[in-house]
Amino acid sequence: MKRIIPYTVINVALLSFAFGQSETQQQSADSSSEQEVRQAIEKYRTALLRRDVPSLDQIWTDDYFFVNASGEMLTKAQRLANLKSGATTLESINEEEDLKVRIHQNTAVATSHVTIKGQYSGQPTSGQYRSIHVWVKSPAGWQLVANQLTALAAK
Questions:
Q1: Radius of gyration of the chain from its Cα atoms, rounded to whole angstroms
Q2: pLDDT digits (tens, 9 = 90+) for 89-132
Q3: Burial code of 107-119, b = ≥16 C-beta within 10 A, e = fewer?
Q4: How far is the CA of 22 from the CAs of 11, 15, 19, 29, 126, in angstroms?
Q5: How far apart are alpha carbons 95 and 22 in whole angstroms?
Q6: Which of 119, 121, 116 is CA-nearest to residue 151?
Q7: Residue 21: per-residue pLDDT
Q8: What percent of the chain clears pLDDT 90, i.e. is strictly above it?
Q9: What is the pLDDT of residue 123?
Q10: How would you classify residue 122: left for phi > 0, otherwise alpha for psi between -120 and 50, otherwise beta?
Q11: Taking Cα atoms as reference points, which of 141, 152, 134, 135 lies closest to residue 69?
């Protein structure tokens, strides 16, 4: 019985060391994923500004949807059609303010304060919005599943 106690203590110490290392590795992976998502957001912003339909087709998942500031829900096909037709053209997107990215395994949620100028679905738009993006990591990299804009009241 006296021999069991030292072995138990050693095993508990080794297990806690192993779990501690795992947590550190997870934090490192999350940090790496956060940087990848930030890069994906920048690629997305650039593709929207350039109306780069082939890039957006890859960035958006097949079941992607967008809820605009008017509360309308648009599918991937509808958004691509708006871009191709010129109904959606953006002059500027400033998504640098208050950008936060949270990683949950292979999913990321990004929130920000964004200033947009241009037109959506043929309607002029300009203002400040709260933005939320939901990204998933697939074999093709980080892809956007959904995003929403909420207009902020003028201050």
A1: 22
A2: 999 998 766 899 999 999 999 999 999 999 887 788 889 999 99
A3: ebebebebebeeb
A4: 16, 11, 5, 10, 46
A5: 33
A6: 116
A7: 44
A8: 65
A9: 81
A10: left
A11: 152
Q: Indicate the residue type of 117.
A: K
Q: What is the mean pLDDT of the chain?
A: 85
Distance CA 123, CA 138 (A): 33
Q: Which two tokens stand for residue 47?
A: 């593709």
Q: In one letter, which amino acid is 44?
A: Y
Look-up of token digits 């997107």: 93
123 and 90 in contact (C-beta within 8 Å)?
no
| Band (153; pLDDT cuts 50, 70, 90) | confident
| Residue showing tokens 């650039």 | 46
Q: Give me the amino acid identity at 19.
A: F
Task: Please enumerate in sequence order all residues whose Cβ is within 8 A of that of 65, keeping only pairs 6 or more positions apart, or say none.
Answer: 73, 74, 75, 76, 146
Q: Which two tokens stand for residue 149?
A: 């804009």
